[in-house]
Amino acid sequence: MLKTPLIIVNLKTYEKGFGNLGLALCKDMESVAQESGVCIAAAVNTVDIFAYSQATNIPIMAQHIDPINFGAHTGHSLPEAVLNAGAVGTLINHAERQIDEEKISATISRSRDSNLTTILCTADIDKTISGAKLGPDMIAIEPPELIGGDISVSTANPEIISETVSKVSEISNNIKILCGAGVKTRDDVSKAFELGVDGILLASGVVLSDNPRKILHELVLGIV
Questions:
Q1: pTM summary value
Q2: Which of 35, 64, 80, 94 is catalytic?
Q3: Given the residues 96, 142, 145, 217, the one annotated as active site
Q4: Is 159 a catalytic residue?
């Protein structure tokens, strides 16, 4: 179950983010979550969902699902299969796995049918407004030009965070707001929460770190 305040670590397809290395990383997340009381979730490769969900107590998420039903859909990711493997939710429309608005709507609907929590990734305010009207559980605002960089969105473009919080609240008070792109430090996290977010979505700052456990400890200090 995903709770706020929330940190989601996207393992992407990094070498350190799959198999035994990815599991060790999830174990670090579990340890820091238990010590801090902050919910830390991992968005993982589909093939690792079952193993990681069985071996840890943190929420495990899919990085993408397809809006399909049971049937002849070779090579697709079935929402019910992802849920059955142990995922509690899924990212939708990440900058590295974008889909059109029709598919976003269908994916949110199929996720809801399958009891998967939806985190819709958006790149700008216009996409955020249109996305919020589709009713996701959470929206993660991530300016694509800052993803994987060394400058956090909360530093480079704080206005996009505060405007996201404001615009989404006008549409629904039930949608939680996350931010991502370049988030790597305690100060990055602290600034984001001061701007009104409920959580953060990040990847390389943790996954590629030489000491991810230490980084996670620093990040939660920006919340607690």
A1: 0.94
A2: 94
A3: 142
A4: no
Q: Catalytic site residue 94?
A: yes
Tell me: is residue 208 an annotated ligand-binding position.
no
CA dist 164 → 93, 94, 95, 196, 201 (Å): 17, 17, 17, 9, 15
pLDDT tens by residue, 66-124: 999 999 999 999 999 999 999 999 999 999 999 999 999 999 999 999 999 999 999 99
Identify the CATH assignment for 6-221 out of 3.20.20.70, 3.40.50.620, 3.40.50.150, 2.40.30.170.
3.20.20.70
Report whether 147 belongs to an annotated binding site. yes
10 is in an annotated binding site: yes
Helical spans, DSSP H, in 19-144: 19-36, 49-55, 79-85, 101-113, 125-132
Residue extents of the structural domains in the chain: 6-221
**Does 203 show up as a binding residue in the annotation?**
yes
